[in-house]
Write a structure and sequence with these properties.
The protein is an alpha/beta fold and 269 residues long. It has one domain (10-263): NAD(P)-binding Rossmann-like Domain (Rossmann fold). Helix content is 51%, strand content 14%. It is built from ten helices and seven strands. The protein has helices at residues 20-31, 43-57, 71-83, 108-136, 157-176, 196-200, 203-208, 217-229, 239-250, 253-263; strands at residues 10-15, 36-40, 61-65, 87-93, 139-144, 182-187, 234-235. The protein has a seven-stranded parallel β-sheet with strand order 3-2-1-4-5-6-7, sandwiched between helices. The N and C termini lie far apart (52 Å).
């Protein structure tokens, strides 16, 4: 079993836990008996989820509101864990967001913030908590990427690149951790009905997709936690998503980008 045994003094830390896949990953871990440290900016939602998990599964669930994009926010997280005498045995890096549009027309500051949250925070939190796991000889890391990680996406240049980073980082981290007792898994969901599309400005694109391409958020979460539990390196929920991921890996980039331009009806400007 790659997941550590639940303990009263240890928690599974889940970032981006206020909604969607993050909240469902927390539910999946709580059902396995793991105490939770729930992290996001919306502390009111975290408190509701913490109450739900404690009531349903009898586990300890702590809500920690902070903005992980900032160094001050990450320090607040670390300080809160220390104050509550909580050890992180499972780390779930789920916090992230996307943007959509021609890169030259997007807000540059927002794109930089995306890289900080989707990439820098993943590395920072792994750097803070993985060494302790290695010292104890047990631990698990689940980093959430996307099927966007397998190919460059026109109109989502920064987002697809950030998720490619998460995929590659986690695969290399997994190799570095071999033999330590610490597992690392990357979860790569395809389309899911969450708040992601609204934040990214992709509501019209999502509405145009047929229902069968969407995998329910609880199913994605269970696949990720189950994959971590069985020590899988890469988890791609949904048969169609597995096919598109393989295609994205092995199709020549020139063909992929040409297809992407036609799909998004991009001109030469």
């Amino acid at each position: 079993m790659a997941l550590p045994t639940p303990s009263d003094s240890a928690v599974a830390l889940v970032t981006g836990a206020s909604s969607g896949i993050g909240a469902d990953i927390a539910r999946s871990l709580a059902a396995r008996g793991h105490a939770l440290a729930l992290v996001a900016r919306r502390e009111d939602r975290l408190a509701e989820l913490a109450a739900e998990l404690s009531g349903r599964h009898g586990v300890r669930a702590e809500a920690i509101g902070c903005d992980l994009v900032t160094k001050a926010g990450r320090k607040r997280l670390v300080d809160a864990l220390a104050e509550r005498e909580l050890r992180v045995d499972v780390l779930v890096n789920n916090a992230g967001f996307g943007t959509a549009g021609l890169f030259q027309r997007l807000d540059g500051a927002r794109e930089t913030e995306l890289v900080r949250l989707n990439c820098e925070v993943v590395v920072d939190l792994c750097g803070r908590f993985v060494p302790g796991m290695v010292e104890r000889g047990a631990g698990a890391v689940l980093n959430v990427a996307s099927t966007a990680a397998f190919q460059p996406l026109p109109t989502q240049a920064t987002y697809s690149a950030s998720k490619a980073f998460v995929l590659t980082f986690t695969q290399a981290l997994r190799a570095d951790l071999h033999g330590t007792g610490v597992a690392a898994t990357v979860l790569c969901p395809g389309p899911v009905h969450t708040e992601f599309g609204e934040v990214a400005g992709l509501e019209q694109e999502a509405a145009a997709l047929p229902d069968f391409v969407f995998v329910p958020s609880p199913e994605v979460a269970e696949a990720g936690v189950g994959g971590l539990e069985s020590d899988k390196g890469v988890v791609i929920p949904g048969a169609l998503n597995k096919v598109t991921a393989v295609g994205g890996q092995f199709t020549p980039r020139r063909l992929l980008l040409g297809l992407g331009r036609r799909v998004y009806r991009l001109g030469d400007s």
